[in-house]
Each structure stands twice: as structure tokens, then as C-alpha cells.
Design brief:
Layout lengths: L1 H5 L4 H22 L1 H27 L1 H19 L4 H12 L6 E6 L2 E6 L6 H5 L1 H5 L3 H19 L5 H5 L5 E5 L8 E8 L4 E7 L5 H8 L7 E5 L4 E3 L6 H14 L3 E4 L2 E7 L5 E7 L7 H25 L5 H9 L3 H52 L2 H16 L1 H4 L3 H13 L5 E5 L5 E4 L9 H15 L13 H10 L7 H5 L3 E6 L4 E8 L9 E7 H14 L8 E6 L3 E7 L8 H13 L3 E7 L2 E9 L6 E8 H5 L3 H44 L14 H29 L10 E8 L7 E9 L2 E9 L4 H20 L5 H14 L7 E9 L4 E7 L5 E4 L4 E4 L18 E4 L5 E5 L1 H4 L11 H14 L3 H16 L8 E8 L1
Antiparallel strand pairs: 1-2, 1-5, 3-4, 3-17, 4-5, 6-7, 6-10, 8-9, 9-10, 11-12, 11-15, 13-14, 14-15, 16-17, 16-20, 18-19, 19-20, 21-30, 22-23, 23-24, 24-25, 25-28, 26-27, 26-29, 29-30
Helix pairs in contact: 2-12, 2-13, 2-14, 3-22, 4-5, 12-13, 14-24, 18-19, 24-25, 26-27, 29-30
């Protein structure tokens, strides 16, 4: 033992100690910074819960729930036709499966062809509704009068024919009856260029409990919802109603939308009508997260293990002493590499940890900044329509002061107003005399309910601002006018300021949606017009502004979107239009923003990249959900400086380590490496390689000795050339047959033997042999066999029997004392008949593929190798090859080739490979290439352990 200690340099023990210190320091630093990684992981978990919450909210919202099923019905109607069983079955699912009572009216070329149910209500109205919607000019006005009362009965106010025309493809909500919101219905109509049309009326959409119950199976199990006023609770899987109620109360008490309760992460959102949605998932009990915690724990564990091994090596106990001795036995190059690598572990680890934290902090800042910028852009977009208000004011003033109005050129005035209405620059217009009577109006008194109110307002306004325009006939004030003026002048009614200031654009709600209203008095005129009013729906103005801003000139991959989604009207169409399925996460977030009325921030993978998305409901009309997209990749480019600093630190450490290792290795590691290259050259028999003699010292002497040895390898290469000339690499073949071979020697001189030659006019010899071992001795034995076979053509020996007998006698006499044997398979082929006569001497059995039966058989000929016994017993075999059959002869180096884990290639593998390749119909050379590649892939890198030879014969 004392003698052994003398040869231990101490490297192994010090290296174990040195290994433990960096891992311990890195683990300690990791522990102190774990909180930052936990926060990041927590945000990742919450983001996942938020996306699942978006799914639950959108699927159960009224608009999404109805449109999704209506669109599915519409697609089925388009593909199957209105009379199909599938369409009828789908319609019945509306009420029976999804709880949606509705009437469906189906049209072809705008004529009603079928209804669901068959006795659908208001059939007379819907009989011609699509025809009426597509009328023009005076015909449309007549149709609007005809349908006005019916539409008022079905849909309630603000659903005239002209408003229905503008709602094509949109789900419109309507209020009917006397119970307000309790009777909120919906309708939608669609029409295709081919004439197919659909009008669906839903008197009362299903309530929230019905909707959520219907779609719950399609949601993730951790999704839940509740309607607390109705005491309806749908807790996530694995939780109870009580759990959900308490978790909700905790979020309210804590003033945030997420909490932890009973081993679950809970996240909630609340709709504007009291509906609550949630998502709940289990979280790790430790509170730490995945890979980072594992790395820190691994650092502590690795450092403890190395310290224990160091202590055991110091007191010479196992396994510490054994590991220390193994480290001592490493090459000098490896030791130096390990030492310098370890010298960089600590600074690199610290740089990576601190750099990662810095990158995470910077990323959070960029995300927050992008959110603020997006919200600012959306707010500007939302308010940008006010330029349209100014344009409306200019148009109104222009109409007021135009000669066609002041001089009552009514045809010209009507033509101009109609153009403005058609272009959606204004919606309604009227001009009255001093008595409040109409000169011209776009309103139809029989349709528009505000006509009487405008009569009253105009007379009150003229009396207040232009009393001189009142004649003696109009000086009398009726009781109705007196009461109306009292109401209009009251601040309680909210119209006092409007009545006091003519010539101004006012915004107020007329019907369902807000509108712009301009009115003025002609106090400067003595006769002619006395009152003018121009009205425009902000809905039309806002939609036109959105289309102009977002759609015209929009890129193929837009960064700002408006989704048609509101309380009164929803289509889920985007401006500009996008339709790929990958946009669905964004639409779900928009649906949640609509339901909750909140601004949402998401990081979404969309069809053209990953984006930070800000989603905001516009508050002007409640018609759109606005979305701003910030490409994540472009924003994170600002982190490149930090990444470059981190990379520079890592690179500098590596350069220092590399330079130190290079300085040491240039002294004595390089010469040792040269000698290693020389040894590798000997292994691959590269006789041209020479070791550079770098200096005249011990290393130089050794290099010269190696170079002398490498020169002697040249003679072996000459022997290989001679041997290869004895073996046919492009064997001849009889007519009607294809023959090819492959030879992979293990060393320069191989012991495998193969031959193909013509014996007589209708006989060909196919030979495959293998001498035990390889190298020079095996090559000489192979040459003896080759010479004996060639001698048969001169002596006229019978084949194969007499040739095999003479070879056995020769090998027994000359090579058995040297323990050399040879396996040999000798086949005689008669090309005209395909008949095969064969004998074998211990060689692997040939494989014969039968095309007729698509089967593979072995030509089994059990026997002893040549030279094993003085007198051999022959077991000749006769077979035949039919057209399309193929024969494989091979040496045992193929089937006994080992893989890196010492598994042999094996006969079954060879059988399957050969039969599959023959069955594929590839040429023989391609089959051999595939077999060689398969064997090399199986073996892995390095030379073959034994010679490999293949010979394939195929009858065409």
C-alpha cells in the first residue's frame, strides 16, 4: 500500500474537492434568487388559467353560444340543402340539446321555401321579407310601411325594415313585450349570391344555467361558473360548491381575481350581470417550481456527494478511493481540460443566473410598457371618430345654408340629401316652415315614431328663437304646445340645454343607439324655411370610421383589429377580416372582454407569430371590441444588449480557460496528441500518415519510431491489392440472371472468399467461403482455396463433390496443425433450368427467396468446416430457382456483427432485411447499398470485427 501511495499525485482528491465547491456556491445563489423564478412560474400558471377562463366565458356567453350553433346550422344547410334529414335533425337539437327555441325561415331566390317548425309564426311577414329588404327607392318605402306594424309586433321598436337591412349577417338583440330585459330576443338573417337565404328568430335565448350545462362537457374539467343571485353553482372538477363559494369570497376580500384554496389555484372573473366564471387547478404543495428547484436541489446534492467522496478518499475508503484512482488514471489532456473547465463553472453559473433574472425583469417591463402603449393607441382609435362628427357638422351647416334649402329648390335638395343618405354621410333630414309644417323630410310619418315629437320641438324652437317668423295665425298656443314647451324646457327632461342652443351638433340616444343631431332656425329669413334638422346614427359613422382606419390599406397581418361584438349586435367579424382558426384565442378573449367590460392583456400565438395583445371594449357605442397586437419578437429585440453582455461574459470566461489550456498543452500535450493520432493511423492501416517531429527530445525520438512503423504498413497494402485482384468485384452472370457482390474486409488482408465463373456451357459455379480469423494467415489460406478451385478447370474434377473433397484433404494436411479451418458453400447453377446442386462445409446456409409464394427459405446443409476432419461426409442438396427468385450467399461476419451494446445483428434481422429488399424490386446494387448502410448503422463507428461478404443471384 505504501508503495501505491507514492504514485498518487493527489489530483483525484483535490479534483473531488474542487468539484464540490462551485456546485455549493451556485446552489446557494440559486436559493436566494428562487423567488424571482417562482414569480415567473406563477405568472405562467395564471396565464394558462386565464386562457382556459377565456374559453369558458366565450362558450357560455349569449352571443358566442347562439352564433356558434347558428353558423353550424347555416353550414349544414348550404352543404345538405333545406330538405335533408340532417338539417331537420340539427334544427331539433336547437331546443332539445341546446335549449334554444327558435323559428327558422329558409329561402331560395328570396322566396320562402321551408320553415322550422312547419307552422312557424308570422309566416305572412317572413314570406316576402327578403324580397322587401332588397327593394329600392319608393318600392322600399312602400314595403317598409307594409311591414312596419308586423316588425314592431315581432321585434319591438328600432327594428324597421331599413334597420334590418343594415343588420345582415349580424345577431341583433331586440326587446319585445312589456317586461324589458326579461323578454330580450335575437334574430339574424343571411343570404348567399346563389339565392340561399336564412332568417332565424329566437324569442328568448336560453338562460345562463342552460347554456353552461349544455357546453360544460366541451370545456376543460377545471372550468367552473356560477350565478350567485340564483344560487346556481357549477364548481370545477375535484371541488365543491362550498369550495367555489369560499374561494370567490377570498378573492373579493383580497381585492384581486385569483387566490389559493384547498390545494387549488383559483382565478375568477365576473360578468356585468352578476355571472361568475372560474378556473381552478392544483398547484405544487411546496410552492417551488419545476426545473429551477430541481437544479438548486441537484447543486446541493452534487456538492455533498463530492465532499463525501473527498473525505472517503482522504481516509482511503471506498468508493472515494476508487474514484480518486480513476481520476488519477485520466490522460493529461483530459485532466487539464477538466481543471480549466471547472475554473469557469462558478463565474459562468453566476453570470447565467443573474443574467436570467435580469432578462425576466426586463421582459416584464417591456410587457407592461407594451400594454400601456397599446391601451393608449386603442383609446386614440376609439376617440378618433370625432373627426367624423366635425365632418357631419360641416355637412349639416352646408345643407342649412345651401340655396336649395334657403330658396326651397326641393328637387335639388332632395337629390343631394338622398346622395348623402346613400353614402351614409347623414341618416335623416327635414326642413319645415314657420308653422312647423314639413317642406321635405326623409322620415316617413307612418314608420318613424319621432315625427310627432319633431313637430312639437320645431314649433317650440321657432317660437323661442324666431318669434318674428310666427304669423298672426300662429300666435295662438294649443294646450299640447304649452305642455310640450314646459317639458322641453325642463332640466329634468335633459332637453333644456339642447333647446337653448341651435346650430350645434348634439349627441343623445334616440331609440337603441346614440345619434348626432343638428338643428337650427332660419331667423335671418322672413319667408321660406324656418327650421332644419339633420340626424345621423353614430353607429354608421363609427363603423365607417373603423373600416376606413383599419381596413383600407391594411397589411396581410394586421396589428390592430376591431371585432363586431356588442350588447345589441354581434357577428364576430373582424376588421380587417381574418378567418384562420388560429385567431380563435383572440376572439375568445374579446368575448370575455365584452362579457366583463374589462381591458384584458394576453400573450397569444396567432397565425403570423406570437403577440402581446391588449383587448378593450369600446365605450362609445358598445359595438366593437378593439384589439392591439404587439409582436413579441420585435419588442424582445431590445433585450439583445443584455443577452450580448451575458454571452460576452460566458465567452470571455471560455476564452481565458481555452488560452490557459492551450499554453499548457503546447508544451507536452500536443506531442502526446500526435502519438495518439499515430496509433489511430495504425488502427485504420493508414500507411501515408506521418507524425510531425516537432523537436529533438524524447517526444521527437518516439515520433520517428512511429513513422518507421507506419512505413511498414505499406507492404500490407500491396498484399491487399493482390488479394482483391483474385476476387471478382463485378462478377460475370449467365443470360437471364443478375449477380452482384459486396466485400467489407475487417483488415487489409481478408479471409473471406467468393467466386463466380462458368464451368461449362450450361453450368456456373457460385462459391462463398470464410477462413477462420483474418489478416495475413487468413488471406494465405483463402489464396490456397482460390488456387485449388481454379485447378479444377484443368483437371476436370466433378463439381461440387470432388472439389470439396480435395479442398478438405488439402486443408486437413496443411492448415489443421495451425488451427486454421475454412467454411465453404459451393453451388452449381444450370441457368437454362434454374437447377441448383450444392454442397456445404460449415458455412451459413444460403437464403432463397421464392417469388411465387413470397417466402424465404434456407438451403440447409449441415456439415463440418474444411480441414476439421480427415474424411468429410457430404450432404449434397438439389433445388431450383424460378423466375423472380433470388439467392443470397453471405459470410458469418454479417450476422455476427455486434452493435455498441454487444447485440448481434442476427439471422432473423438478415432474413427480414433481405426479403423486404427483394420484394421492393430494387436493383441488386441498390439492395447491397441498403444492406451495407443498415449494417453500418447497426454497428456504429469503427472498423468491422470480422470480414463481411455478400453475393446475390437473381433470376430475371
Amino acid at each position: 500500500m505504501n508503495q501505491a501511495k507514492v504514485f498518487r499525485s493527489g489530483f483525484g482528491r483535490l479534483f473531488l474537492l474542487f468539484l464540490g465547491i462551485p456546485f455549493l456556491l451556485l446552489a446557494i445563489i440559486g436559493s436566494y434568487t428562487m423567488g424571482r423564478f417562482e414569480e415567473h412560474a406563477e405568472r405562467e400558471r395564471l396565464a394558462l388559467l386565464e386562457s382556459e377562463l377565456d374559453l369558458g366565458v366565450s362558450e357560455s356567453s349569449v352571443a358566442f353560444y347562439l352564433i356558434k350553433r347558428i353558423n353550424a346550422f347555416w353550414r349544414l344547410l348550404r352543404s345538405k340543402g333545406p330538405d335533408s334529414v340532417e338539417v331537420a335533425r340539427f334544427y331539433h337539437a336547437f331546443s332539445k340539446v341546446w335549449g334554444i327555441p327558435c323559428s327558422a325561415y329558409i329561402y331560395q331566390n328570396r322566396k320562402l321555401t321551408r320553415t322550422f317548425p312547419d307552422n312557424a309564426a308570422f309566416r305572412s311577414t317572413f314570406e316576402t321579407i327578403l324580397i322587401d329588404l332588397n327593394r329600392l327607392g319608393e318600392d322600399f318605402k312602400i314595403a317598409q310601411r307594409k311591414n312596419n306594424q308586423a316588425l314592431l309586433t315581432i321585434f319591438g321598436p328600432s327594428n324597421r325594415l331599413e334597420l334590418l337591412l343594415n343588420s345582415k349577417g349580424k345577431l341583433r338583440r331586440f326587446t319585445h313585450g312589456t317586461n324589458g330585459e326579461s323578454n330580450r330576443g335575437a334574430y339574424i338573417w343571411k343570404e348567399l349570391p346563389n339565392g340561399l337565404g336564412l332568417f332565424i328568430v329566437i324569442p328568448q335565448p336560453p338562460d345562463f344555467q342552460t347554456r353552461f350545462s349544455a357546453i360544460r362537457k366541451r370545456l376543460p374539467p377545471n372550468a367552473g361558473a356560477a350565478l350567485p343571485p340564483a344560487n346556481a353553482w357549477f364548481p370545477p372538477a375535484g371541488t365543491t360548491k362550498t369550495d367555489m363559494r369560499i374561494a370567490l369570497q377570498k378573492t373579493v376580500a383580497e381585492g384581486r381575481n385569483q387566490t389559493q384554496y384547498r390545494g387549488f389555484n383559483w382565478i375568477f372573473c365576473q360578468g356585468r350581470e352578476g355571472t361568475v366564471w372560474c378556473s381552478a387547478k392544483t398547484f405544487p404543495a411546496t410552492g417551488l417550481t419545476g426545473p429551477i428547484e430541481s437544479l438548486v436541489f441537484s447543486g446541493y446534492l452534487i456538492s455533498v456527494v463530492f465532499f463525501l467522496l473527498f473525505i472517503l478518499a482522504q481516509i482511503e475508503l471506498q468508493p472515494g478511493l476508487n474514484i480518486s484512482d480513476r481520476l488519477e488514471s485520466l490522460s493529461i489532456r483530459t485532466r487539464l481540460g477538466l481543471l480549466f473547465a471547472l475554473a469557469t463553472v462558478l463565474p459562468l453559473g453566476i453570470a447565467v443566473i443573474l443574467g436570467s433574472i435580469g432578462l425576466m425583469d426586463r421582459r416584464e417591463f417591456l410587457l407592461s410598457e407594451a400594454g400601456r402603449e397599446s391601451l393608449s393607441r386603442l383609446s386614440q382609435l376609439e376617440q378618433g371618430y370625432k373627426s367624423g362628427v366635425e365632418q357631419f357638422k360641416k355637412i349639416s351647416i352646408s345643407l342649412r345654408n345651401s340655396p336649395s334649402a334657403t330658396q326651397l329648390r326641393l328637387p335639388q335638395l332632395e337629390s343631394r340629401v338622398n346622395r348623402l343618405v346613400k353614402n351614409r354621410a347623414i341618416q335623416r333630414f327635414e326642413i319645415r316652415d314657420s308653422a312647423g309644417k314639413l317642406f321635405f323630410s326623409t322620415d316617413d310619418p307612418l314608420v318613424h315614431g319621432v315625427s310627432h315629437a319633431m313637430d312639437l320641438f320645431s314649433r317650440v324652437a321657432i317660437r323661442r328663437h324666431a318669434p318674428s317668423r310666427l304669423g298672426t295665425a300662429n300666435e295662438k298656443i294649443s294646450a299640447e304646445e304649452l305642455m310640450g314647451e314646459e317639458l322641453l324646457s325642463s332640466d329634468d327632461m335633459g332637453l333644456a340645454a339642447l333647446l337653448r342652443q341651435p346650430g350645434k351638433v348634439w349627441t343623445f340616444k334616440m331609440g337603441v343607439n346614440p345619434c348626432l343631431w343638428y338643428w337650427d332656425i332660419y331667423d335671418e329669413l322672413a319667408t321660406g324655411p324656418a327650421f332644419i334638422a339633420v340626424t345621423h346614427q353614430i353607429e354608421y359613422l363609427y363603423e365607417g370610421y373603423i373600416r376606413t382606419t383599419l381596413v383600407r390599406g391594411a397589411p396581410a397581418n394586421p396589428l390592430r383589429l376591431a371585432v363586431e361584438m356588442g350588447e345589441e349586435s354581434t357577428s364576430f367579424r373582424t376588421l380587417p377580416g381574418v378567418s384562420a382558426p388560429g385567431w380563435l384565442p383572440l376572439l375568445r378573449a374579446c368575448a370575455r372582454s365584452l362579457e366583463t367590460g374589462r381591458v384584458l392583456f394576453r400573450e397569444l400565438e396567432l397565425p403570423h407569430g406570437r403577440f402581446w395583445v391588449t383587448v378593450k371594449p369600446e365605450i362609445t357605442l358598445g359595438m366593437f371590441i378593439l384589439a392591439d397586437l404587439v409582436p413579441v419578437a420585435s419588442r424582445l429585440q431590445t433585450l439583445s444588449l443584455i443577452k450580448w453582455r451575458l454571452a460576452a461574459t460566458v465567452l470571455f470566461s471560455l476564452i481565458v480557460s481555452f488560452l490557459g489550456a492551450t499554453l499548457i498543452s503546447s508544451f507536452f500535450i500536443v506531442p502526446i496528441g500526435d502519438l495518439s493520432d499515430g496509433i489511430a493511423a495504425i488502427r485504420v492501416r493508414d500507411a501515408t500518415f506521418r507524425i510531425p517531429v516537432r523537436r529533438k527530445d524524447e517526444f521527437g525520438l518516439v515520433a520517428e519510431a512511429f513513422n518507421t512503423l507506419l512505413g511498414e504498413l505499406k507492404e500490407l497494402q500491396y498484399g491487399r491489392v493482390v488479394q482483391e485482384s483474385l476476387l471478382p468485384m463485378n462478377p460475370p452472370h449467365p443470360e437471364g440472371y443478375s449477380i452482384d457482390c459486396m466485400r467489407l474486409p475487417a483488415t487489409d488482408l481478408a479471409g473471406d472468399y467468393h467466386d463466380v465463373f462458368q464451368i461449362s456451357e450450361d453450368k456456373w459455379a457460385l462459391i462463398m467461403g470464410d477462413v477462420t480469423g483474418h489478416g495475413i494467415s487468413a488471406a494465405l489460406a483463402m489464396a490456397m482455396a482460390k488456387a485449388t478451385v481454379d485447378y479444377q478447370s484443368l483437371t476436370g474434377w466433378t463439381v461440387p463433390a470432388q472439389v470439396m473433397e480435395n479442398l478438405n484433404r488439402l486443408f486437413y494436411r496443411e492448415l489443421k496443425p495451425r488451427q486454421k479451418f475454412m467454411t465453404l458453400c459451393y453451388l452449381v447453377l444450370e441457368p437454362s433450368t434454374g437447377k441448383i446442386n450444392a454442397e456445404n462445409a460449415g458455412h451459413p446456409y444460403p437464403l432463397l427467396y421464392r417469388r411465387a409464394t413470397d417466402s424465404l427459405e434456407e438451403l440447409a446443409m449441415p456439415s463440418m468446416p474444411l480441414g476439421a476432419k480427415k474424411n468429410r461426409r457430404a450432404f449434397p442438396l438439389t433445388s431450383a430457382m424460378e423466375r423472380g427468385d433470388a439467392l443470397l450467399m453471405y459470410s458469418d461476419g454479417f450476422v455476427e456483427c455486434p452493435s455498441p451494446n454487444d447485440t448481434l445483428f442476427g439471422f432473423p434481422h438478415l432474413n427480414n432485411l433481405f426479403s423486404g429488399l427483394i420484394r421492393s424490386g430494387k436493383p441488386l446494387d441498390k439492395i447491397l447499398e441498403v444492406m451495407e448502410k443498415t449494417l453500418r448503422d447497426f454497428k456504429g463507428p469503427g472498423p468491422f470485427p470480422d470480414d463481411v461478404t455478400l453475393l446475390i443471384v437473381k433470376r430475371n
